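Note to self: user wants both folds in one dump. Writing first protein now.
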Amino acid sequence: MIDALKLKSIHDTRDVRLSAQEEADLGRAIRDAEREARAAVAGWDCAEQILRKRPTRAERTRGGAVKRLEVAMEALEEYAREHGDADPEVRADARTARNAWQRGETLRWQLAMSGIRIARGEARKLTCSLMAEEDLVQEGFIGLLRAASRFDPDRGIRFSTYARWWVRAQMTRSIETKGRMVRLPGGAVEQLRNLRRAADRFETDGEEYGVDELAEEVGIEAARAKFLLSIGGVVSSSQEDEDGHRLEDRFEADVDGDDVEDLTESRRMFDRVAHVFDEVLDDREKFIINRHYGLHGEDEHNMASIARELGLSRERVRQIERRALGRLRTAM
């Protein structure tokens, strides 16, 4: 069994290392808590409609299943608030599901915090002028929590091994999205990363290459590859190679004037939207828009979770969002 001292507090973020058996025990305890929550919401139509809905490709993972269970539980809680007086059983089941879920959340936190050293180690490797080490450590914590929600102990992989990939992915994505004046879409970030990997492979093999060869390797148009490389100012592009040249400098001369003009126009539009956003909306409206649409590198949140954070009803949050979007459209 897991040492009780290691599970003392959800707020305890000391660097506590777990053995492989302890990691597996924690993973199974988390799964048991999720099963208890699932059993509590089973049979209620409002929850079953969510759980039985055919999952999208992104939801066919353990992480997707856990997220759907959380949404189903929130739907049951909302139903219990509206009909709990007439049907006390639904209120009891909603409470049971919430207690089991909270227990699972506590265990996920403890499992995630067992990998603090991983977050700190990866942050030291990726620290650059665009993001400080402490900011990267915080991103690493997010990666650890995501890994904890997706960890399957029956696969025979240690959590510390599994979590390292999530931590590094979260950090590199944060550098790409937050460490620049103009945020790139997720698809463009992935293409830019693939371009750099292709360049590294060519250099390792000692082969001559240009933008056309990189674009063909990645499977995108040469014009798009030129554009991405021209605005991809992240850590690897600002570092010098053995000959003292920067990766971004290698492709600057190949960028067409139209691409530069498009980039300038995009930046102008970005500045305009940011100005209108700050001037037109109040703090609560900004918070709701940011959380719902995942702006500034955040994850998207549903109305129920936003309403819970603000202490409002879901319908009230929806009304505020509609009003905010209308004001933005008018101002633009």
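First done. Writing the second protein, which came from a different request thread.
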Amino acid sequence: MTGMAMLFVILALLAALPSASVALVVTRSTALGLANGLAVAAGIVLGDLVFAALALLGLSVLAQTMGGLFAAVRVLGALYLIWLGFRLMTAGETTSFVQPEGGDGRRHLAVGLLSGFVLTLGDIKAIVFYASLFPMFVDLATPKTADMLMIGLITAASVGGVKAGYALLANRLVSVIRRRGAGKGVKKAAGGLLVGAGSCLIIKS
């Protein structure tokens, strides 16, 4: 259990590092409400679970050979970040911070979930990372079902918990800022953050 606790701490610390995924969680949470930030966090967790499963199943070498496909996904995710950031930067005073109701609300949640998932899938190096990290805690030659389930739960709890924390903090912060009448400035700052994150992703690609 000590090893699994160490794995949790490692994944949580890495998830807390500033990144494009953090920028997306924060921006969706501030612009469209906490539920949207949590939807992005859920999408990120799903992407990480896919990579963890591939690593546990020994498919890291295959993933490396598919680098071109994942590079294309990465560029698409980056372009989406830039587009979303541009929209926020050019939004008027009437743009709402409140989660829309009904069909529009569900659509925003679905977009948030999908964007988090696609953005995470764009990081092909994550499979190699997991494949190199997991052997410290599990025998990948003969992985046990219980160990695989435990790693999945730890991945979801650590990564999801950190990203959800970002969403909650961002939502609380924007509530304070809204009361002080600085909402437009927050949107422009968040938009600039997304444009910067998307541009960095394209450069790295």
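Dump finished. Worth passing along: The mean pLDDT is 76.
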